[in-house]
Specification:
The protein is of the alpha/beta class. The chain has a single domain (about 1-295), classed as Glycerol-3-phosphate (1)-acyltransferase. It has 11 helices and 10 strands. The strands form 2 sheets. Strands 1, 2, 3, 4, 5, 8, 9 and 10 form an 8-stranded mixed β-sheet that branches. A hairpin with a 2-residue loop joins strand 6 (about 200-205) and strand 7 (about 205-210). Helix 2 (about 20-40) packs across helix 4 (about 60-85) and helix 10 (about 215-220) packs across helix 11 (about 255-275). The chain is globular, with a radius of gyration of 19 Å. The chain starts with a helix and ends in a 21-residue tail after the last helix. Keywords: Acyltransferase, Cell inner membrane, Cell membrane, Membrane, Transferase, Transmembrane, Transmembrane helix. It is an enzyme of class 2 (transferase). One of its GO terms (cellular component) is plasma membrane.
Length: about 300
């Protein structure tokens, strides 16, 4: 099976290499349409998430538009653009990205305290870490290994350009603490549902959800500043990384600091999603812990 995945990847890469962008756009729409139609269970998850998040705030037609764009982005960002970003250069990456409110990150870096980026599956997040490293230096990101060893090797080679270190989620604590001690910027995706033992309850789109407190815990343990940041599209060839004002966990009441800092991260994520809902990765069962029946 591993060899089949590898063969399919190189066939796809060859097609992308020899065809123009106009064909790429057609391929993206075709793949998105096929996946959306064939995997009805996943489509139901997407629509359930949108219904729980927005309720009657937006129409069903708008929800369907968001869902369709979500699939298109998935095919484009993790398919076409992933291949285009292989063996790239810092100069090429930085031409694809602009930075909004980067003074918030620069101020955090200049404080000489460790810095943790709290982000989400939003926009072209695979480009996010490359752009961060190209612009600001050494970056460490938390990630999970794929089941296919061959594809995982290709993915890691792509992710670890420009001094980007990939920390495996299995036993990640030691790697994260080491990276922060070395002065590396650490990026963690925090927007997925968690096991009851791993999450704390917060509010997200006015719904009860479990949210990982990992960023808040590491910040408290290492005196790190937390900077929420997200990448989103400006146009077909340009993305924007937007930074929020840093969260200093030492300014919260110690007893409630973890929950308050975690809620602040969820609030920033929700704010971005409300601005550009079609750029969020709606495939995860984000509300599952307290709304399990909705996904049945």
């Amino acid at each position: 099976m591993d060899k089949l995945y590898l063969a399919l990847f190189y066939i796809f890469k060859f097609i992308i290499t020899i065809t123009p962008n106009s064909v790429h756009n057609a391929i993206v729409k075709f793949l998105a349409s096929i996946y959306m139609r064939l995997n009805k269970r996943r489509f139901k998850v997407v629509m359930t998430n949108l219904n729980l998040a927005f309720g009657d705030e937006i129409s069903m037609q708008r929800k369907l538009e968001i869902a369709k764009q979500c699939y298109i982005n998935f095919a484009k960002f993790l398919g076409i653009n992933f291949i285009k970003n292989q063996n790239t250069t810092k100069e090429k990456v930085l031409k694809k990205v602009c930075f909004k409110n980067e003074n918030f990150l620069i101020e955090a870096i200049n404080s000489k305290r460790p810095v943790i980026i709290s982000t989400a599956h939003f926009g072209e997040w695979e480009l996010f870490s490359l752009a961060m490293a190209a612009r600001f230096g050494a970056v460490s990101v938390l990630g999970r290994r794929l089941d296919s060893k061959s594809i995982d090797k290709i993915l890691n080679a792509n992710r670890t350009q420009f001094d980007v270190e990939l920390i495996d989620k299995q036993g990640a604590t030691k790697g994260i603490l080491k990276a922060l001690k070395q002065g590396r910027i650490v990026g963690i995706l925090v927007d997925q549902n968690t096991a009851k033992s791993d999450g704390i309850e917060i509010s997200f789109f006015n719904k009860r959800v479990l949210h990982t407190p990992s960023v808040s815990i590491f910040a408290q343990k290492t005196d790190a500043l937390i900077v929420n940041a997200f990448i989103s599209q400006i146009d077909e060839n340009l993305s924007e990384i937007c930074f929020f004002e840093s969260i200093d966990i030492t300014k919260f009441d110690k007893e409630n600091a973890i929950k308050l800092a975690t809620q602040a991260q969820a609030d920033a994520c929700e704010a971005m999603i409300r601005q550009k809902p079609d750029e969020y990765f709606w495939f995860h069962r984000r509300f599952k812990r307290f709304y399990k029946e909705a996904y049945l």
